[in-house]
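quick q for whoever's on today - can somebody do inverse folding on this one?? i tried earlier but teh output was garbage lol. tokens:
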């Protein structure tokens, strides 16, 4: 009997110890779950801040799915960006060439352009990566250099808008480096935007331009509103009366006042969809636009061709009002020293240019016709030879496997060119190598016969 009691008490002790262990494990599990639950909630809160998980954010920043397209068989393959860019470029060339050939359109060779950059708080938005301000600054630099390459006799000035005020950044000048340096040093966003203050400021500068100069304003606008001190409609009418052509490129939604400004002054208004579209819209303003009817009258302009100053000679610069050693140019009329060309002499007011600048300004009057797209035929006939090399760069026009690739041919000389040479000829060279070589060979043969 005593042994049974000992056995029962021993079993009861084991059961009690087992129950205590189970309760202790439940407490530990409960704390673990509670801690794990708190960590999950923190992770969810971190994910909800951006609305995306970590792996989704990585792909959203790269947007890699936009570089794929579906082929005829239903398979995904990378997009040929080079071909797409060339197709868009050729469409732009055709539209520009058709507009100039259907009617006699006079274009201004001497342009005075003010770029108004919106640096209000709206420019700090990140819908353009990394921000609207960074994208505008990057492509404005490229636009300034392209503008002077296509318009060597023209000048550019810059104005910024922030805190409800328009601030003068650079005066009209022909040095792209000085404009870019000034813009990169003032990239700060704050306050509201005032379109009227900016137009009043540039109107005061452009209203002093001679009648032979073409007055233009290009506004890079990020805000959705304008905070003006007065009636902006009166300012728009003053710009229209002064023959100032105003164009706007918006980085947000379309705004009525911007549309009205462009319609009244004969400019263009467009809204950028993404960074690549913004770059295209901006570079469309590099070639000279058609001249306003009142400015289409031929004028004789006095110009001076200054000589390069001798190295090591100390002279006072008329544009910076300080002494400089060597370099610069000497005005042929008043013998004043200027630093760069083209410009206007600060002493006598004579327009100073160089002969290469004047020669490069005429390619807009005689544009090269767009080349025809051709495909090299596959022929086994030895008597029928088709060109297999680009006439410009001498690179092969065949893709790997000796298969014909898409190329273009000049409608006049019938020479074949690759797509890269097509872009280079129309945007930079402005002369067809095939036509020029044929012209020189013809002159040489005539000289030999004589």
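ok took a stab at it. sequence:
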């Amino acid at each position: 009997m005593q042994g049974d009691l000992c056995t029962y008490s021993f079993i009861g002790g084991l059961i009690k110890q087992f129950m205590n262990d189970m309760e202790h494990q439940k407490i530990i599990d409960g704390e673990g779950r509670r801690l794990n639950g708190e960590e999950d909630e923190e992770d969810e809160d971190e994910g909800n801040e951006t609305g995306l998980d970590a792996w989704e954010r990585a792909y959203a920043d790269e947007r890699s799915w936009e570089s794929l397209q579906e082929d005829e068989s239903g398979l995904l393959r990378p997009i040929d960006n080079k071909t797409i860019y060339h197709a868009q470029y050729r469409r732009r060339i055709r539209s520009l060439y058709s507009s100039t050939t259907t009617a006699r359109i006079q274009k201004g060779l001497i342009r005075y352009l003010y770029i108004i950059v919106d640096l209000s708080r709206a420019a700090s938005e990140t819908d353009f990566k990394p921000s609207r301000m960074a994208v505008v600054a990057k492509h404005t630099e490229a636009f300034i250099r392209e503008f002077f390459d296509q318009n060597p006799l023209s000048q550019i000035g810059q104005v910024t808008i922030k805190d409800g005020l328009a601030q003068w950044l650079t005066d009209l000048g022909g040095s792209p480096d000085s404009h870019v340096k000034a813009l990169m040093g003032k990239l700060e966003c704050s306050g509201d935007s005032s379109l009227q203050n900016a137009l009043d400021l540039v109107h005061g500068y452009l209203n002093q331009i001679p009648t032979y100069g073409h007055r233009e304003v290009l506004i890079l606008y990020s805000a959705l509103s304008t905070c003006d001190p007065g009636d902006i409609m009166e300012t728009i009418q003053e710009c229209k009366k002064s023959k100032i052509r105003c164009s706007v490129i918006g980085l947000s939604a379309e705004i009525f006042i911007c549309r009205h400004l462009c319609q009244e002054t004969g400019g263009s208004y467009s809204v950028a969809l993404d960074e690549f579209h913004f770059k295209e819209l901006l570079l469309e303003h590099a070639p000279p636009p058609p001249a306003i009817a009142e400015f289409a009258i031929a004028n004789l302009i006095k110009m001076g061709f200054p000589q390069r100053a001798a190295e090591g000679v100390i002279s006072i610069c008329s544009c910076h009002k300080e002494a400089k050693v060597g370099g610069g140019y000497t005005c042929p009329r008043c013998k004043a020293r200027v630093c760069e060309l083209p410009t206007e002499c600060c002493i006598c007011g004579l327009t100073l240019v160089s002969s290469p600048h004047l020669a490069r300004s005429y390619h807009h009057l005689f544009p090269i016709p767009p080349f025809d797209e051709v495909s090299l035929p596959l022929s086994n006939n030895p008597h029928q030879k088709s060109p297999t090399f680009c006439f410009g760069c001498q690179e092969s026009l065949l893709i790997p496997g000796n298969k014909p690739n898409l190329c273009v041919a000049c409608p006049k000389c019938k020479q074949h060119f690759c797509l890269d040479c097509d872009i280079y000829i129309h945007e930079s060279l402005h002369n067809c190598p095939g036509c020029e070589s044929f012209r020189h060979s013809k002159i040489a043969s005539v000289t030999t016969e004589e």
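fwiw Residues 1-8, 26-50 have pLDDT under 50 and may be disordered. also The radius of gyration is 34 Å. so keep that in mind when u check it
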